[in-house]
Amino acid sequence: MRYIDLIHQTFHFPTEVFKVENDGLFFNDIPLMPIIEQYGTPLRITYLPKIGKQIQRCRKWFQKAMKKQDYKANYTYFYCTKSSHFKFILEEVLDNEVDIETSSAYDLFIIKKLIAEGKINKKTQIICNGFKKDLYTNLITEFVNEGYNCMPILDNMNELEAYGGIKEKFKLGIRVAADEKPNFAFYTSRLGVRYTEIVDFYKEKIHDNPRHELKMLHFFINSGIKDTAYYWSELNRIVYKYCELKKICPTLDTIDIGGGFPIQNNLHFDYDYEHMVNEIVKTIKYICDKNFVDVPHIFTEFGSFTVGESGCHIFSVADQKLQNERELWYMIDGSFITHLPDTWGIGQKFLMLPINNWEHEYQKVNLGGMTCDSDDFYNSDAYTINIYLPKLNGNKQYVGFFHTGAYQESLAGYGGTQHCLIPAPRHVLVNKNRKGEITTSLFQPEQDSEQMLKILGY
Prior knowledge:
Elements: H1 3-10, E1 18-21, E2 24-27, E3 30-31, H2 32-39, E4 43-47, H3 49-68, E5 75-80, H4 87-95, E6 99-102, H5 105-116, E7 126-128, H6 134-145, E8 150-154, E9 170-175, H7 198-206, E10 212-220, H8 229-246, E11 254-258, H9 273-290, E12 297-302, H10 304-307, E13 311-322, E14 328-332, H11 336-339, H12 341-345, E15 351-354, E16 362-368, E17 377-378, E18 387-390, E19 398-402, H13 408-412, E20 426-432, E21 438-444, H14 449-455
Parallel strand pairs: 4-20, 5-6, 5-12, 6-7, 7-8, 8-9, 9-10, 10-11, 11-12, 14-16
Antiparallel strand pairs: 1-2, 2-3, 4-13, 13-14, 13-19, 15-19, 16-17, 16-18, 20-21
Helix pairs in contact: 3-4, 3-9, 8-9
């Protein structure tokens, strides 16, 4: 049986994102073989138009839900810079009039660069999360004093003391420590202020201080926004706490429902985004109405959802090895540990498809990386316990891992030294011009030995 027959029998294919023409795979209507022929492998691709599409889709879901529920407040989309700090990502995000959420002091140095280039102005909202050391709080103080719309989110009660240098009245938020999911190692998140201490903290430290204006409660669910009893329980808790605090704090008017939407990691993916958004808006309104409290503005912080589906990694099969009667290995010209560290560190599964040879017969294989580490492999997909790829038969085979646009360089490091000194792949940006024509540009060539040797002191 041909590989294309296997896919047609197993999935609804083609999809909005993937199709096959002339035995070659298209990604968001972009033919991948010409890009591979031009730039080679291993190769990382970022398809920039996908970022704006994700942002606009989400805004429409919230607008529709708020209209349906007669929700009398606003929705604001924030981008989590920690998902990808690349300049081309931030520029694409800001072109879609998105506000920014930061996690460390060094994010604010990026913000300074973008301000200098006119990409961010004093209307752009900047919310600052994370546990903060002096450099971070000093930069926040500087931003606020210079008139930027920058709001610190208190991660602990002592943090408030760090903003004594802010000259005028300033806005702030409080992160609520969520309960972790039932199978997690800890019961309560290490991040945020304890649920039972928030009201007393407000009364003692914020209420009577004319310089402080509490605007927002923030909570974050590490497992993301999913239709589970755990998620709905935590959402209910934060909304009830909002209602309790709102009755004594009239300036409080916003909830930040941190924790992102999932992204597609297999062809069976059927997450109903529109339904989830409607249920979130409906739940918040129901609890607020029940407590005779005005509904809050809703902020979301989406990182992976914003950039994840814009990215892919492509490798070529360098060779095949039959190690015993059952274990056939396709050895790729890259490394899962260094190029896709999620697959090694947390067992993340990505959507994997061959780029070419869809008309060939297929076989069960394991994919092996180039490092000497026994853990540098990939042998199952998110939807099956095995992976199948076309038989080689003397032909060159290319394999793509899709929706890899978030966190890869953050987890593995970028431009540094990796396990077995495997170089970072070349990185190509794909865009469309005003005429709808495909354009490509090389963002970075494959890392060379001189860069590594300099880091290592040679």
